[in-house]
Fold this protein.
Amino acid sequence: MLKFMKVAVILLILMGIAGFAAYRFGISIASEKLMEAVSGELENSNQMEELKKSIESDPELKAFIQEAEMMDDSKLPIKTKEEAAKVLIEKVGIGELNEMRKEVMEGNASKEELLQEIESKLTEEELYAIKIIAYKELYSN
């Protein structure tokens, strides 16, 4: 009986470790796929230029993004767009991000509502880091 319990505990521990590794690996793959899809879609459809123009014409969005110019990015927790996608997936959730995308495409949500919802789920440092990454991505081309 004791031997069976030892084997069962060891199997449960191994399954837990395997599940955790699969979860982390899955989030990593999902964030990479998300960034590839978004970047490719924006670049291939000239939506990047439209996005830049819409940011330039909207003072609130322009101020939101341009805060990144004044920020020191050396101490921030997120350094790359892949890491930013991973944090967004972990904190907001891929289903909720997809729902936000649908609401924006259908015109059912305002940018203020979406920004407020995302800001409520991220720390100030994460939000600043994502602003810096967005700024660099938009204006590096």
In short: The mean pLDDT is 76. The helical segments are 2-44, 47-57, 59-66, 81-91, 94-106, 111-121, 124-139. Residues 2-139 form one domain.
